[in-house]
Input
Amino acid sequence: MRTSMRTATRLARLAMLGGAAMLAAVAFASWQSAGIAAEEAVVIPAPAVDEKPSSGAEKAVFAGGCFWGVQGVFQHVKGVTSAVSGYSGGAKDTAHYEMTGSGTTGHAESVEVTYDPAKITYGQLLQVYFSVAHNPTQLNYQGPDQGTQYRSTIFVADDQQKKIAQSYIAQLDKVKVFSAPIVTTLEAFKAFYPAEDYHQDFLTLNPTYPYIVYNDLPKIENLKQLFPQLYREKPVLVSEAKS
Output
């Protein structure tokens, strides 16, 4: 099954790069025949330890599988002013899609979230991240994607983010809201490198793409159902910020 998952993922990404819809359809069929289901959301409590609302803009960087879905989720969260797909964990000269895909660069497909802490807190972002954006009990794979470049990681920018994330992981593990322990790692943030333009806003721009339909659109619906107070219908897009 692992071989078929890697093959399906490779076909899907090749389809996106080359615009071959047939390859995408083949990949989609491979995932289904392999019994690979889209990740399910989990209802979890709010963090007991969190930052206090404040003024100004803050940033958070999350990794949890393919950045298309993670970006798409946070673009629909109120208080988020920007969500950019990119790479974090490795060097600048290897922050490219083809190189990161080798799993040898140290990079993870990541999303840099810029948010207004007067409207949403870091802890609330973590709640969405753990509950909806990905499965935190899977370390180096999400859905059909495997490799360290898809690892479950929070790139913490400072001691406060580290404290909140550590406390929340311990809180969630204690009440056993997941069927297995959380394996999400915390890595010190060093740098974030935006991904290529064709990766930005991919979920919104490609709503009928098989990978998106099967793996990522359910996450948007889960966000809407589980966090109606945080959900925004119109996503904040990278393309609109550039225009």
